[in-house]
Every structure is written in structure tokens, then in C-alpha cells.
Write a structure and sequence with these properties.
The complex is a heterodimer of chains A (about 110) and B (about 120).
Chain A (H helix, E strand, L loop, with lengths): L4 E3 L2 E4 L5 E6 L6 E8 L3 E9 L14 E5 L5 E5 L8 E8 L8 E2 L3 E5 L1
Chain B lengths: L2 E4 L3 E5 L4 E3 L1 E4 L4 E8 L5 E7 L5 E3 L5 E5 L4 E6 L8 E9 L9 E2 L3 E6 L1
Classes of the chains: A mainly beta (about 110), B mainly beta (about 120).
């Protein structure tokens, strides 16, 4: 079946601009995670959505970062006023539930802030 | 804060050599343990996982890992590597317990290069 998809695959933006990254999880997966993979920091958790529960935003690095998940499916990660240190690969993963279930990763969006 | 440490950042082996990648975590409670692999140009994918039971777990492509609770370790092994095992390997943990979300805490990764 279809896996996790993310768009765009690559995004180049100027410092100070806002960007939106999209994630389509596997159908039926109630849990959705965003991670960031960067050279300096490795793979870091950003935010977690599970059904209708309040999201776990504990990994968001600043208030410039926000995310939504509409209708329990598609998620959008928004970065406002991008900075060069935001350059990274943003990964989305989904799972059947939260804790205790395997997470399936998408291909990522490579963000470059110039 | 909880953390995961992978001791080897870059490993170079010849085909048929044996592999062991070290992974240690810092957390006193119950954890679930994972090894993920990222082949060049591909997604992160799960190699194997440990939740409970037999501490020696077997995964895909001939990989196995052993959970040693007393050492807070979950080392990855393969008796004979192939050129196709060239990839980046990530150890990760999630914290067990009903208040935890299942977010993965990753190690820094180990790049494995297998020479034909």
C-alpha cells in the first residue's frame, strides 16, 4: 500500500520567508510525528499528534514553528521567518498508535534557507 | 534528559567481515529499543525492535541485536556484511509508560561503508 508521502521534496527559501511542509500519513494511522534531521543535531523529535488529543509540542525549537493536523490525517508543519539554522531535512512518520507501534517514515523535505 | 549514544561514527569493513555497532542509552526506566537503517537515497526503515521478552532480537537482512539491561546497551550485529549493507544506522529508544507518546530519541548515527 501507499506509504507516508511528503511534499515538497526540496524547498529553497530566503531567510525571513515562511514555509509550509506537508505530510500525508498512511491511511488509518492515528499517530503522526515530525522529526528534523540536521548535520549538527542529528535526528530530533519536533511534534506528535494522536487522534483528537492535544499534540505534544515539546520538541518544537521555537515559537516560529507550528503544526496542524486536519481531520486526523494530513499534517502541515509551518516555519515562520525562516533562519539559516532551520536548514535541515524534515521527516514525517506515522503509526497505528502512539507508544508501542512501529513508525513508518516518509522521504522527507529538504529545506534550504539562503 | 534521556539520550542515546552510538560509539562508532564511521565504520569501514570489507565484505564478509563481522559487524557490531554499539548503542547505549541513558534512562533508568523501561524503554523500547529500535535500530533503523537509511540506505543511500531511501527512507528510514526499521531493522529490528525490542519491546519485551527474549533480549536477543532478530531483524531483517540477517541483523540481530542484544538488549543488555545492566549495561543499558542494545548493540547491533551481523556475522557477515555485504556491500548492500552500506548505509547509515540509527539506534533509537522510546520511553515506555502510559504518559509517553512513543517519540523516538535517536543516536547520532553510524555510517557503515562496506568495500566489495
Amino acid at each position: 500500500g501507499a506509504g507516508v508521502s511528503q511534499s515538497p521534496s526540496n524547498k529553497v527559501t530566503e531567510k525571513g520567508k515562511d514555509v509550509e511542509l506537508r505530510c500525508d500519513p498512511i491511511s488509518g494511522h492515528t499517530a503522526l510525528y515530525w522529526y528534523r534531521q540536521s548535520l549538527g543535531q542529528g535526528l530530533e523529535f519536533l511534534i506528535y499528534f494522536q487522534g483528537n488529543s492535544a499534540p505534544d509540542k515539546s520538541g518544537l525549537p521555537s515559537d516560529r514553528f507550528s503544526a496542524e493536523r486536519t481531520g486526523g490525517s494530513v499534517s502541515t508543519l509551518t516555519i515562520q521567518r525562516t533562519q539559516q539554522e532551520d536548514s535541515a531535512v524534515y521527516l514525517c512518520a506515522s503509526s497505528l498508535g502512539g507508544r508501542g507501534y512501529e513508525q513508518y517514515f516518509g522521504p522527507g523535505t529538504r529545506l534550504t534557507v539562503t | 534528559a534521556q539520550s542515546v549514544s552510538q560509539h562508532n561514527h564511521h565504520v569501514i569493513l570489507s565484505e564478509a567481515a563481522s559487524l557490531e555497532l554499539g548503542c547505549n542509552y541513558s534512562y533508568g526506566g523501561t524503554v523500547n529499543l529500535f535500530w533503523y537503517v537509511q540506505y543511500p537515497g531511501q527512507h528510514l526503515q526499521l531493522l529490528l525492535k525490542y519491546f519485551s521478552g527474549d533480549p536477543l532480537v532478530k531483524g531483517i537482512k540477517g541483523f540481530e541485536a542484544e538488549f543488555i539491561k545492566s549495561k543499558f546497551s542494545f548493540n547491533l550485529r551481523k556475522p557477515s556484511v555485504q556491500w548492500s549493507d552500506t548505509a547509515e544506522y540509527f539506534c533509537a529508544v522510546t520511553l515506555a509508560g502510559s504518559s509517553n507518546t512513543g517519540k523516538l530519541i535517536f543516536g547520532q548515527g553510524t555510517t557503515l561503508q562496506v568495500k566489495p
